[in-house]
Amino acid sequence: MINDIAAAVLGCGAVDWLVWRGFCLEPGAFGSWPMFANIGAYRVRLHDVRDGQPVCPWQYELRQVFFNSPQQLGSLVSYLNEERGRRVVGEGVILTHFDHFRIVVRNGRVLRA
Fold first, then answer.
1. How many angstroms separate the CA atoms of 32 and 17, rounded?
2. Which 3 state secondary structure label does DSSP give 79?
3. Do the Cβ atoms of 90 and 56 come closer than 8 Å?
4. Distance between CA atoms of 113 and 94, rounded to whole angstroms?
5. Other CB atoms closer than 10 Å to residue 60's CB: what's the count?
6. CB neighbours of 38 closer than 8 A, spacing ≥ 6?
7. Where are the alpha helices (DSSP H) in the chain?
């Protein structure tokens, strides 16, 4: 009986320790959940320079990708220009793991606003 209680207490303590290491430490620390350590995303409104029509990034991005990096936005802008012949401009926001900042898309480049 005492062994069962001791095993239950140690098991609960181990689970508590793992939850604390995984969720309460800053990302990148030993034992933190690496899945959430480097999430980055962007939200942007793009327009074609020639006709002013809005360009939806989701028509050109992979359907299963929800979080994209600033580098992927730059690749998308280059792809639209080089492969699709669409010169786009726009504005938006980049979300990083601890910060966010405004961006603009001009002349085929993603720039910090």
1. 11
2. helix
3. no
4. 11
5. 14
6. 27, 97
7. 2-23, 70-82
pTM for the predicted model, two decimal places: 0.62
Amino acid code (one letter) for 89: V
Distances (CA, A) of 76 to 56, 73, 87, 106, 111: 11, 5, 11, 13, 14
- Left if phi > 0, otherwise alpha if psi is -120 to 50, otherwise beta: which for 52? left
* Three-state SS at 90: strand
pLDDT (tens, 9 = 90+) of the chain, 113 residues, equals 888 899 999 999 988 887 877 777 666 666 666 555 566 788 899 999 999 899 988 888 776 566 677 788 888 899 999 998 899 999 999 887 778 889 999 988 899 88
C-beta of residue 28 within 8 angstroms of C-beta of residue 37: yes
DSSP class of residue 94 equals E
Give dist(CA 7, CA 10) in Å, integer. Answer: 5
Contact 69, 78 (CB under 8 A): no
The encoded tokens of residue 87 equal: 């010169």
Structure tokens at 78: 């280059």
